[in-house]
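Box 3.1 A note on notation
Throughout this textbook, protein chains are presented in two layers. The first layer is the amino acid sequence; the second is a token string describing backbone geometry. Keep the layers aligned when reading.
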Amino acid sequence: MDTTLTDPLIGQLLDGRYRVESRIARGGMASVYLALDVRLDRTVALKVMHRSLAEDPQFVQRFIGEAKSVASLSHPNVVHVFDQGTDGDHVYLSMEHVPGQTLRDLMRERGRLPARDALEIMIPVLAALGAAHQTGLIHRDVKPENILISGDGRVKVADFGLARALEASHQTKTGVMIGTIGYMSPEQVTAGTADARSDVYAAGIMLFEMLTGEPPYNGETPMSVAYRHVHDSVPAPSALAPETPQQLDVLVQTATDRDPAGRYPDAQAMLVAAVEAHRLLARLGPMPVTGAHAALPPTASTSGAHTAPPPYGHTLIQPRGAIPTTPAVAAGIKRLRRHWFIVALAVAMVGGIVYSGWWFSQGRYIQVPDLLGQNIKAAQQQALKSGFKVVVGKARFDEKVAKDLVLDISPSANSEVEKGAQLTLIPSGGPETIPVPKVENLSEADARVKLADAGLTVSRVSKSPSDTVARGLVIKTDPIVGKRVRKGSAIKLIVSMGLVMPDMSGLPRDQAEKLLSDKGFQVSIDEVTDDHEPGTVIAQDPAGGTPVEAGVPVHLTVSTGPETGFQWPWDNNDGSQPQPDFVNVPDVRLKSLGDATRELQAAGFGVKARKLFGGQRVVGERPTGQAPQGSKITIWY
């Protein structure tokens, strides 16, 4: 039975944007789905974290931070992260979909790989890791399952940052090692720490496995494998695969040195060594094997007669960490190391193409610089200085690239072109924005249609009284009409409740009568003895908040004060003068709500604001005249 048929996410629209179509894979941390981004009409890979992780706030917080870091890493050999989000208990990444297979699938199909094939996979992997290391980003879980190979042979590294997010939520709590045991460096096993050299170690293990068809360590339990990573040295690949060239033995053993200080300092350094090894294989043909599997040709016979020197590249075994050299090769390596960054960029583009000495030549061709993400004017100046003719094309909207940054280059970055060729730079227009259309005085349904036609949605609808806009019609939008917002943004609608009876309770009688009369209501008064302050409205009919028509009669009940003998809270028991200091209450009517509040607070009063008509001007105040210092003043607006 196809388990994807029972997956509840299949067919769902996640976060209102991603329609989940099928499940591609399921792992220990997440399930990966094929989904359609309905907003941009493109196919994406959706990595949805398992619920146990999504329920951990610390993991979610770190996961979001790591996703942002990875999204900023733009490299042709890194699986691009488009978006990150949450939908209920689903935490997900939206990523570039790479149709094809993993390196693990390839190794299952082919077993051990020839040296050059292994290098042509490893070089773009190291280019991706090297770019990440230059930005301070560590992968922490390099393994064949995270290396994707597309149908056209492109190699991409996936799952940057997930292991680090897991470390935050699990390792510090439980002591569980985060990563895949077979590829973990000794320091990850013993101390739980990782840096660029830990990724180098995992890359070395992966190269060993490609060359030999099996990992260096096997064991009955994960802990027995971890023990061997800490206490054993990874053997030379030629011990299991005699045809392995000596240069690859050196590459693997340097990368997997148990002491981090003995390894390549980062993936960029290992990339330089891998490129040089591939260059030697491409130029010089098959290399001799090492150790017991091959014998070096003699330099002299027993009779003393000289023989021809060893063929080019057939050199003595070098100290660990070195690449066999002749003087010419040594000079090339020196130049290569000096220009490692240019080499890394070139490697990322050519992938499985045979690498030759063109990196070191200065012929009629030059490399297109990688100007993606740079300011368009600065990129234009840089391209002109490099000898290109520069044309700036029409800007295109893009959700991820900010306005006025380079979005695209033609010819593509890192390709080879003739000197003086034309370079077209396409600037980003930033996210597409549209003005909020005018929907005032439309029904809610008509307003929704008009907003949808403009490419906007409705986030929520709130209702507000209005004596100018008929009930059920839109009063205003938030953001306001004409403000430019991103396409697809959600707009809030404020819909009229029509004329609503204002709540007059607590207002002085004279203020209440005037406000209602000004609004066209017919006011009648009924006075009663009550414990409220004399002249205060204590009830009304119709009640506040009741939808009414203009001009209806309103009956107010007003207190005449308490019966004789009532004692206010601040009176002394003997009927003497009140204890608190009475001070003048500022008259803040007709002032803005903010100004009124500040003025009353400055005078030493507390403030209670009550909404009456929904404006921003104070229309009523209680008490007026004098009041005990520190008491609360009620204002109506």
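Residues 165-178, 286-363 have pLDDT under 50 and may be disordered. The longest strand covers residues 18-26.
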